[in-house]
Amino acid sequence: MLDAALALAGALAVVLAATASGLAVGLSGHSAAPHFGPVVVSSPPVAHGAVGTAPAVLPPAPGRLQDYRAHLELRVPTATALSDRTKRAMRIARRLGGVVTKVDLSTQGRGGTALIVLRVPVGRVQDAIGELSALGRIVSQHVVIVDAERKIEALRKQVQDSTGDARQVAQAQLQRELRRARLSTLAVGLSTPPVAVPVPEPPHSESTAARILEAEGRIALYTLLIAGPILLVGAGIWLVVRALRRRSERRLLET
After folding, report:
1. Strands (E), 97-239
2. With a threshold of 0.90, does the pTM exceed it?
3. What element of type H or E holds 73?
4. CB 174 within 8 A of CB 152
5. CA distance 85 to 81
C-alpha cells in the first residue's frame, strides 16, 4: 500500500512539473498572452465655428469717409435653399441702392457653396447686414473699417497741384477712393451643412465585451492549469500520509 501511494505521489509530481513547464512556454508566447490594450472609440467630426443668430454690426462713423468691408459666412439647409438665398441676396443689394459685383454658385447633389460680393451705400450698410444675416445661420463674420479722410484729402490736394497727365491720373485715383468710401463692400458666403461620412470599422474588430470575456476565459484556464496539479499533489500526499497512519495503527494492534 505504501509503495502504491509513493508511486502515485511521484506520478503527480511529474505531471505537475510537465504542466508548469508547458504553462511557462505558453505564457512566454505572444499568441497566448491576453491582450488588455485600450479600446479606441472613434467620434464623428465636429463642425468648427460658433453658430449665432444675430450679427454684430459696427456702424460707420457719421460724417467720415471710410472704407467699410464686411464678410459673412452663413449656413443654409439645402442646395435648393442655397440657390434661393443667393437670389435674395442679389435683390437685397439692388433694393438698397447697391450693385452685385460677383456671384459664384456651385452645387453638387444636396450640398453646395456660394459667394456673393455686393456694393451697398455706406449709409445703408447696417440694413444690408441685418437683412443678409437673416438668409441663414451665422457661422462667422469679419468687419474691417479703415478711415479714408486723410488719403482722399491728399489726393484732392494732388489734383489741385498737378497738371496734364499727372492731374488725370490723380483725378482717376480720387474718384476710385471716393466711390470706395461711399459704397461698402459686403461679401456673403453661403454653404450647406457638411455631409457626415461614416467611419468604417476595421475588419475583424472585437467589441469590448468580447475582449473581456476572452481575457476572463484565459485567466480561468491558467488558474485551472496551475491549481489543478497542486490539488492532485496535495491529494496524493494526503493518501500517502493516510496509508502510513493506517499501517502504523495495524502494527500497534498486532503487538
Report:
1. 99-108, 111-121, 137-147, 183-191
2. no
3. strand 66-75
4. yes
5. 6
All cell numbers assigned to 160: 489741385
CA distance 87 to 18: 85
Residue the block writes with cell 474691417: 144
Give me the tens of pLDDT residue by residue for the chain, a chain 255 residues long: 444 444 444 554 544 444 444 444 444 444 443 333 332 322 333 333 344 455 666 788 778 888 899 999 999 999 999 999 999 999 999 999 999 999 999 988 888 999 999 999 999 999 999 999 999 999 999 999 988 888 888 988 888 888 888 888 988 988 888 888 889 999 999 999 987 667 766 665 556 666 776 776 777 666 666 766 677 667 777 777 777 777 777 777 766
195 phi/psi in degrees, rounded to 5? -80, 125
Count of residues making up the chain? 255
Distance CA 190, CA 84 (A): 11
Query: How would you classify the pairing of strands 111-121 and 66-75?
Result: unpaired
Question: CB atoms < 10 A from the CB of 183, how many?
Answer: 21
Backbone angles phi, psi at 92, to 5 degrees: -60, -45
Contact partners, residue 141, CB within 8 Å, separation at least 6: 55, 56, 70, 71, 72, 73, 133
Per-domain residue ranges for the chain? 2-27+214-254, 66-191
Query: Which has the closest alpha carbon to 146: 120, 177, 121?
Result: 177
